[in-house]
Design a protein that fits this description.
This protein has helices at 8-11, 24-37, 49-52, 62-73, 103-120, 147-152, 156-167, 183-198, 219-230, 260-279, 322-328, and strands at 17-22, 40-43, 77-84, 95-96, 99-100, 125-132, 172-177, 205-208, 211-213, 235-244, 284-289. The protein is α/β, with parallel strands linked by helices and 331 residues long. The structure holds ligand HAH. Ligand HAH is lined by residues 44, 132, 178, 209, 211, 240, 298.
Length: 331
């Protein structure tokens, strides 16, 4: 029998939380859709380092608090994003006057940031991205070049998790990355986490960003990635899901609406992805979409600036797409 279910959160209540990335603006505009369909929120930008601590010791939580207030008012949970990253982090973090900061100063700042931010945001948070995207996409190096790495050294990743655990022992601590299902990067992520765990570093889960497309990655690669990360004994979360209608190297800009073929293919992909998530739901705690609808999402500006994309489950008028129908009606 096919279940015809109305909302994402109801359709998946026996499997995992269904979340969405938001901003104060999208909550204003699309709040009705968001509170009806989802039961977890992530701040797309406003909890990132440059937003919450633009100057040393000056913490600005107004925008982020609007999101937390919305979550509380609508009985939703939250995942925090993100504490340590190489992007959207202010320059001052890495400076001491005109010089580069020392290892000790950078570590102090990392710890202070976590103490203040993780204590400000407690209820209703169930997880935090402690560290985002530290693995190198190419080459033999495990870690990418970044000011955090060059100032502190390779143990900055471990230190981040240790500080996070000290700041809040009750929230799940996550490592989050993209291209997480590509075999070479998957193996690097696995190796880094395994090594941290062998050293006793506190970590609870792996965030699979899931910025996926119509062709790539293959279901086999996603399956293999889920199994490999789960073999560490960690919980998994799908943290930033979208299904772009363009392959990554397709730079065309002429489309003003998605083609019927694209929408059918996208629906098939979403259907297959959520079947996989149900199959592995004992390991998956939440699935977060990286926007509520095609009205706005980050892929309108990435990787081609100003090119519209249609990667979400609801259309530009916040109406359910075929992709949504397949996700909520499953056998
Ligand atoms: C993510 N990076 C970030 O985690 C998130 O904070 C941001 O809002 C959007 C996407 C993804 C990414 C990628 O897929 C490819 C290259 C660089 C970054």
């Amino acid at each position: 029998m096919t279940k015809q279910l109305l909302t994402l959160k109801d359709a998946y209540k026996d499997y995992f939380k269904v979340g969405v990335a938001v901003s104060p603006e999208t909550l204003e505009r699309d709040g009705e859709l968001i509170s009806k369909q989802f039961n977890s929120l992530t701040a797309e930008n406003v909890m990132k380092p440059e937003e919450v601590q633009p100057e040393e010791g000056v913490f600005t939580f107004e925008k982020a608090d609007k999101i937390v207030d919305f979550a509380k008012a609508n009985d939703m949970t939250m995942r925090g994003h993100t504490l340590v990253w190489h992007n959207q982090t202010p320059e001052w973090v890495f400076k001491d006057g005109d010089k580069s900061a020392s290892r000790d100063l950078a570590l102090d700042r990392m710890k202070k940031h976590m103490d203040v931010v993780m204590n400000h945001f407690k209820t209703p948070f169930y997880a935090w991205d402690v560290i985002n995207e530290v693995i190198a996409d190419e080459g033999n190096d495990l870690l990418r070049e970044s000011p955090w790495r060059s100032i502190i050294g390779d143990d900055y990743v471990q230190k981040a998790f240790e500080f996070a655990r000290q700041a809040n022992p009750d929230v799940a601590l996550y490592y989050n990355d993209y291209n997480e299902s590509h075999p070479a990067k998957r193996d690097k992520i696995f190796t880094m986490i395994k090594d941290m765990m062998d050293k006793g570093t506190p970590i609870d889960g792996v965030g699979l960003q899931a910025h996926w497309g119509l062709e790539d990655p293959s279901l086999d690669n996603i399956k293999a990635a889920i199994e490999k990360y789960a073999s560490l004994g960690l919980t998994l979360q799908i943290t930033e899901m979208d299904v772009s209608v363009f392959n990554f190297d397709d730079k065309r800009t002429d489309l003003t609406a998605p083609t019927a073929e694209m929408m059918e293919k996208q629906a098939e992909r979403y259907d297959a992805f959520f079947s996989l998530f149900r199959e592995y739901s004992e390991h998956i705690d939440s699935v977060t979409l990286w926007a509520a609808s095609d009205r706005y999402n980050w892929l309108d500006d990435f990787p081609v600036r100003g090119r519209k994309n249609w990667p979400m489950l609801f259309d530009v008028n916040n109406q359910p797409k075929e992709s949504f129908n397949r996700v909520v009606s499953y056998k």
